[in-house]
């Protein structure tokens, strides 16, 4: 989805785009488990704004930091203004870690 603000320090998504994405997932039999966004110039951890906008305590909030040579992806549980890093494992037929 497009960042309507075209900014590197915050983002706004079009609610219509968000609803369309959820409809598409449901049509494919998928269940949304969380969401992700990038931090082009800051670490892979929730910002004050990320914590404030984390409305779904059941969702995982993944943040991809692009500030260093190698991107860093972390996942967080955010609830009641607090966050905790989650165990993140990516499984693929092509890659084994």
What does this structure look like?
The structure is a single chain. A hairpin with a 6-residue loop joins strand 2 and strand 3. This protein has a domain at 35-86. It has a four-stranded mixed β-sheet with strand order 1-2-3-4, with no helix packed on it. It is built from two helices and four strands. It is an alpha+beta fold and 97 residues long. The chain starts with 14 loop residues before the first helix and ends in an 11-residue tail after the last strand. The longest helix is centred in the N-terminal third of the chain and has 13 residues, at 15-27.
Q: What is the strand tally?
A: 4
Provide the spatial order of strands within the biggest beta sheet: 1-2-3-4
The general outline is globular
Largest sheet: 4 strands, mixed
Helix content: 10-25%
Q: What separation lies between the terminal Cα atoms?
A: 29 Å
Rg for CA atoms: 14 Å
Beta-strand content: 25-35%
Uncertain runs: none
How confident overall, as mean pLDDT? Answer: 90
Give the oligomer, counting copies of the same chain as homo and different chains as hetero: single chain
Class of secondary structure makeup: alpha+beta
List keywords for this structure.
26% strand; alpha+beta; 97 residues; four-stranded mixed sheet
Helix/strand layout:
Blueprint lengths: L14 H13 L6 E6 L8 H5 L7 E6 L6 E8 L2 E5 L11
Parallel strand pairs: 1-2
Antiparallel strand pairs: 2-3, 3-4
What is the gist of this entry?
The chain is an alpha+beta fold.
């Amino acid at each position: 989805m497009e960042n309507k603000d075209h900014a590197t320090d915050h983002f706004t998504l079009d609610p219509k785009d968000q609803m369309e994405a959820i409809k598409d997932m449901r049509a494919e039999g998928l269940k949304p488990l969380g969401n992700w966004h990038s931090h082009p110039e800051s670490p892979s951890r929730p910002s004050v704004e990320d914590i404030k906008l984390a409305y779904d305590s059941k969702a995982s909030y993944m943040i991809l930091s692009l500030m260093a040579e190698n991107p860093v992806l972390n996942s967080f549980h955010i609830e009641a203004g607090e966050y905790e890093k989650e165990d993140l494992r990516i499984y693929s037929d092509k890659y084994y870690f």
